[in-house]
Amino acid sequence: MDKLVIKKSPALQGSVTISGAKNAALPLLITCLLTDQQCRFSNVPNLRDINTSLALLAEMGVTVEREDDNTVLLNASTLNSITASYELVRTMRASILVLGPLLAKHGKANVSLPGGCAIGARPVNLHLTGLEKMGATIEVEEGYIRANVNGRLKGARIFMDIVSVGATENLMMAAALADGETILENAAREPEIVDLAACLNSMGAKIEGAGTDNIRIQGVAELHGCDHQVLPDRIETGTFLVAAAVTAGKIRCEKAAPETLDAVIDKLQQAGATITTGDDWIELDMKGELPRAVDLKTAPHPGFPTDMQAQFVTLNCVAEGTGVVTETIFENRFMHVPELHRMGADIALEGNSAVSKGKSHLRGAPVMATDLRASASLVIAGLVADGETTVNRIYHLDRGYESIETKLGNLGANIQRVKE
Ligand SMILES: CC(=O)N[C@H]1[C@@H](OP(=O)(O)OP(=O)(O)OC[C@H]2O[C@@H](n3ccc(=O)[nH]c3=O)[C@H](O)[C@@H]2O)O[C@H](CO)[C@@H](O)[C@@H]1O
Ligand SMILES: C=C(OP(=O)(O)O)C(=O)O
């Protein structure tokens, strides 16, 4: 299995081009199930999770073509199966998003139940009860969600008691082809949902309110194809900004979407960064200074994203002062903490908070993470640790970061992929 070997690096300098957002691309690719016409997606990141999604769609009979590394053509008129198998679903939870579109377009779906995963239990009850409200009958048998509807799904008023990105996306896609109006209350407001709604509307859907907690969808009988460019990845952007901050560097992220990063930018400014933004770029300059520790609490958008929590725990470990990071979305998302301890970090876990006392030195060590952003936090720690850090099991990183070693290397990081 590949690993990354990182040596203490100079202050990061230069510019990096941000890829399309993994978490926008995954639901976007799945919209192809809602139409018999061709869908073209550009700025698709070249990632393991994208390949898994394409394999899942191909397994169901969708015609998948790649125009180039970042452009995909999909045509679901050749669909011949409504089953999403355990083999693929178990490697990527977002596979659950095929459930709503398959039900809406074909009246049935058979989707493996995604298991618990490293960061928490992650149930799918909101996806299922929402679809039941729209008239679906759902049974869970032998680890599979078996869903049916007689005729079309029906529009419904659906209140979700927890803000869920995935449930909002699944139900929005299903409602686009339902009979009548659906109102999603307490909907998630993430930029990826706004991007999905824009794509669906370009296919002929009638969706209003995406980006607010009340989304109204007038169902239509048919959707057509699309040509959609995926939103820039705000989590990849934030990860590079933190990497630059801990090395007291100065970098510019190109092809980024600064308006999706308010909460992260705010914390970087509190940490001492000077941030400048344009329409599609963000620049961070530490003016040669190391960061100050920050306190933060994760929350649904526009709050501080849980997918940036691990990277800020690392920042606090090497910052000036003590910072408290509180995780409120997932119950088990501090797996980077024991690995950071191995690198000499001073972090105390108190309930759902990580209290870090900043130190000027971490030391390199072999480390391993069991989830994507935890792995990113260890790579960042490796940049400032004395000596050599080996990050093992990097297939997690490859799920969500396109060419991370090349991009960091171009900014001056001392990082190499070792193939095994
Ligand atoms: C592919 C993708 O876009 N993944 C993102 C998405 O995951 P995902 O869509 O899986 O996350 P959710 O927003 O659904 O999860 C938020 C919380 O709701 C809970 N929940 C969710 C659904 C449900 O039916 N019942 C329930 O209780 C979850 O366990 C969690 O505690 O949003 C998360 C929260 O911003 C991010 O960390 C992930 O990177
Ligand atoms: C948790 C994440 O992704 P997923 O929901 O695909 O597991 C993530 O992107 O940090």
From TrEMBL:
Per its UniProt record, what InterPro entries does this chain match? Answer: Enolpyruvate_Tfrase_dom, Enolpyruvate_Tfrase_sf, MurA_subfamily, RNA3'P_cycl/enolpyr_Trfase_a/b, UDP_GlcNAc_COvinyl_MurA
Q: Which pathway is it part of?
A: Cell wall biogenesis; peptidoglycan biosynthesis
Positions of phosphoenolpyruvate binding: K22, N23
- Judged by the first EC level, this protein's enzyme class is transferase
Q: What is its main location?
A: cytoplasm
List, alphabetically, the Pfam families matched.
EPSP_synthase
Please report the name of this protein according to its UniProt entry: UDP-N-acetylglucosamine 1-carboxyvinyltransferase
According to its UniProt entry, this protein's organism is Alteromonas arenosi
